[in-house]
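anyone seen this seq b4? input:
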Amino acid sequence: MSTPIKNRYDFILVFDVKDGNPNGDPDAGNLPRVDAETGQGLVTDVCLKRKVRNYVHLTKAGETSYDIFVKEKAILNKEIEGGYSRAGIDLQSETDKDGKKRKTKGAGQGDEVNVARLQMCKDFFDIRAFGAVMSTGANAGQVRGPVQLTFARSVDPVVTLEHSITRMAVATEAEAEKQSGDNRTMGRKNTVPYGAYVAYGFVSPALAAQTGFTEEDLDVLWKALSDMFEHDHSAARGMMATQKLIVFKHATALGNAHAHKLFDAVKVAKKPEVAVPRSFSDYTLTIDKEPIPEGVEVIEK
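predicted toks r here
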């Protein structure tokens, strides 16, 4: 692996969804997330990070240093114990208050926690990028990741629709006797007809130095943000795609401009002649490069 990144980056991710549910809220019957005051659609940062993790897990499977720590059905404490093992540290067991054995760090010294933490950062891409809490079992400490994302928010208000769905088949004979051909409602599906969403992100070289996040990792991140929806299609999510990734590369580690001022230079707006947008071609995306100061490079992907 090469050395950690030296430059600060800010970025804007623009994506859209058509006839799908980009991020259902489990506390609201899986309805698409919406700002109750403005009607704008929302997609959480956790949802976007999940898609990045899934993309890296799919495309970099088996490659050294590109495993994923937070993945489906992963037992995190076992992953942490594996980090200790790969670092050459023997773990001891102690009995908790319920009488169960649990693994703890070997000699109880802070140096071992640091060694295990560095090993976990080396092995797992998502720890290097997003950070992790690794103190749920054998203690490998906590890591604050250099890559941070905001919630994505739709440019315009979205309409949430609820569709009844049915099936012709039945699961049991009893169900067959009970149901008639006109009474086979299976459930409901929630969608938005269309929404163009914008999320903002930040990459800190100071935190990258702590996790070992490198230029190679950064290239993987940009690729993931650009292509992650291509490998995440489902009937529930409809058509989702990254429409634009705009990266602001600073010449220094501390940055050459405030992020919010750089973000203000990018405008995504509905075309005046469009009443109801139903595709990204109904929007215009402009970058005003005039106020962007020297020392900031604009990279469009």
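The CA atoms of residues 37 and 121 lie 40 Å apart. The first strand starts at residue 9 and ends at 20. kinda curious what u guys think
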